[in-house]
Amino acid sequence: MGRLNGKVALCTASAQGIGLATALAFAKEGARVIASDINISKLEQEVKDVPGIEAKLLNVADKDQVTALVDQLDRVDILFNCAGIVPWNSTILDCDEATWDQTMNVNLKSMYFLCRAVIPKMVAQGSGSIINMSSSISNIKGAPMRFAYSVSKAGVNGLTKAIAADFITKGVRCNSICPAAVDTPALQERINAAPDPVKVRADIVARQKIGRMGKPEEIAALALYLASDESGYTTGQELVIDGGWDLA
Ligand code: NAD
């Protein structure tokens, strides 16, 4: 008996990294997984032989695409909002309006679109679990040169608590996950594009007192717990998973 047997999970950013690891973990535990990504060819390649996963094109910043996809689903038990972009190396002074708008649209407004589309189904069912991907770099920790990203992820934590408070009596839970550095293709690309990748990688690893970055599968394990009924008493929380970054 899988931990998610009989549940339908809608997931974003499933083509790689944390999103892919989580879609695979959900399917392994018996969920029907509607996996989505803006990069549909990569997603299809990754999940083509995995039972229980359907690949769908979805740009989370496009309201019409969000509505059309959610309308196709009879029910949604789990919503995993994973999509996010990381504008690299900017303070408020280097962050132009286009970067601000794009970051807020992909990282935060997308969750407004997806939650607004999905919550009525969850309320009608009398149950549902929403899991929003935030970050330690948010209202939790200030990190240099991550201006727009920090603001967007703090917004994700606020959106999470507001939804949790408004729908707690309707059977809908809403939590966020706040990781420190996780070794994913996106993070590798950003490190490799830096002028001194060896130093940047060492600096990022050194932040976590456990002495390494997290693995996508470790974040997926927390998402799986939040998706399952095992976490039925948990809502409105920012779950920090940071390799001890926050320790003194
Ligand atoms: P990743 O780049 O490895 O994967 C991101 C996926 O998102 C890609 O498949 C990409 O195609 C997709 N995507 C990008 N824009 C999209 C859009 N508009 N619509 C739909 N899909 C889109 O990323 P990751 O490192 O696994 O990060 C996933 C999430 O975890 C992000 O929200 C990120 O902010 C968060 N996070 C990551 C880390 C980390 O260190 N990797 C730490 C904390 C939080």
Architecture overview:
- By secondary structure, the protein is of the alpha/beta class.
- It contains 8 helices and 7 strands.
- Strand 1 (8-11), helix 1 and strand 2 form a beta-alpha-beta unit.
- The longest helix is centred in the middle third of the chain and has 29 residues, at 97-125.
- It is globular.
- The mean pLDDT is 97.
- Residues 12-13, 15-19, 37-39, 58-61, 82-86, 106, 133, 135, 179, 181-182, 184-187 line the site of nicotinamide-adenine-dinucleotide (NAD).
Annotation keywords:
alpha/beta, single chain, NAD, 7 strands, 8 helices, EC 1.1.1.30, Rossmann fold, 3-hydroxybutyrate dehydrogenase activity, seven-stranded parallel beta sheet, binds nicotinamide-adenine-dinucleotide, 248 residues
In short:
The protein is α/β, with parallel strands linked by helices. Helix content is 44%, strand content 15%. It has 8 helices and 7 strands; from the N terminus they run βαβαβαβαβαβαααβ.
> Largest beta sheet, briefly?
7 strands, parallel
The domain tally reads 1
Name the average pLDDT. Answer: 97
Proportion in β-strands: 5-15%
User: Class in CATH?
Assistant: Alpha Beta
The CATH topology: Rossmann fold
What's the N-to-C terminus distance?
42 Å
The strand order across the widest sheet is 3-2-1-4-5-6-7
Decide which structural class fits the backbone: alpha/beta
* Shape by Cα distribution: globular
Bound compounds, each kind once, are:
nicotinamide-adenine-dinucleotide
SSE string? EHEHEHEHEHEHHHE
Q: Return residue spans where pLDDT drops below 50 for at least 5 consecutive residues.
A: none
CATH architecture assignment name: 3-Layer(aba) Sandwich
